[in-house]
Amino acid sequence: AAALYIVPTPIGNLNDISQRALETLQQVDFIACEDTRHTAKLLSHYQISTPTWALHDHNEQYKSEQLVTRLLAGQAIALVSDAGTPLISDPGYHLVNSCRDAGIQVIALPGPCAAITALSAAGLPTDRFAFEGFLPAKDKARLDKLESLKDEARTLVFYESPRRLLDSVRALVEVMGEERRLVVARELTKTFESIHSLPAAEMLEWLMGDDNRSRGEIVLMVAGHRPDADELPAEALRTLGLLRAELP
Ligand code: SAM
Predict the structure, then answer these.
(1) Taking every annotated instance into account, which residue ranges of this chain make up the domain ATP-grasp (predicted)?
(2) Is the CB of 119 under 6 A from ligand 1?
């Protein structure tokens, strides 16, 4: 039936795709994707011959209109991205938004997502977390962003590129302090998967010790801010000072 199916694909390990995802990719009229060559590899691995169609980010709005027309004409379309869940730091927002406006059914399949995979193994609180996508590339914008998140109590989750990891960790030490716990999850579901958890200053030192420690695909997580004894409110500190002065 006419519908847009949101289909997550593996984030490294080709086996991480659901039975339902494979059936959907097999049955739809065509597959809208980021990079047709990239998606072709996945499809050929599973011997799926459904045609693909590129939904580029820079003209997504225009391409979305074309897809909506075809959906309204009764076609079933699957949306995939290069890896993981579409729309999570990936294209698809305009398309889903247009489908909702046009009254077209949008059916999301659950599946791999690097942020959730990383978070579930990090050992940081997961009851509340904030996904922040990629940090800004420019130093000033990155510092401003981290400054605005400094007192955030929820666990923070960032996507990071290997080229920028060191700069980001350096900025984190500067803004959130040497003691703030960081977790770097690298190459999840792949052969050289690793997860490291250290206080910010030690993490910086550890990463600087070997370039290989920053290679590949990375999720960077930051423990939420926890007010501790050193950060009592000004009023409480003043009272404490007065009390101390009175003690023998
Ligand atoms: N839509 C994807 C998802 O659901 O996770 C994310 C796409 S985003 C363009 C790509 C970023 O996701 C990478 O730069 C990296 O930060 C993260 N990522 C993707 N695969 C990963 C993996 N296997 N291990 C660690 N991080 C990964």
Answers:
(1) 40-248
(2) no
**CB neighbour burial string for 48-79, b if at least 16 within 10 angstroms, e if fewer:** beeebbebeeeebeebbeebbebbeeebbbbb
**Whether the Cβ atoms of residue 135 and residue 145 lie closer than 8 Å to each other:** yes
As a whole number of angstroms, the distance between CA 246 and CA 231 comes to 22
Confidence at residue 231, expressed as pLDDT on a 0 to 100 scale = 62
Residue ranges of the chain whose pLDDT lies below 70: 57, 229-233
| Atom 2 of ligand 1: nearest residue by CA position | 84
Residue 182 φ/ψ, nearest 5 degrees: -120, 150
* Alpha carbon of 1 to ligand 1 centroid (Å): 31
Mutation to probe ligand 1, out of 219, 220, 221 (largest number of atoms < 8 A from CB): 219
Tell me which residue of 5, 21, 24 sits closest to 107, measured CA to CA.
5
Instruction: Decide if the complex's ipTM is over 0.90.
Output: yes
List, for residues 188-229, the tens digit of each pLDDT value. Answer: 999 999 999 999 999 999 999 999 999 999 999 999 999 875
10-25 pLDDT, tens digit per residue, is 999 999 999 999 999 9
Ligand 1 center from residue 115 Cα (angstroms) = 7
Q: Which residue, among 50, 45, 44, 47, has the nearest Cα to 30 in the 3D structure?
A: 50
Pocket of ligand 1 contains residue 173 by CB under 6 Å? no
- The residue whose CA has the least distance to atom 13 of ligand 1 is 217
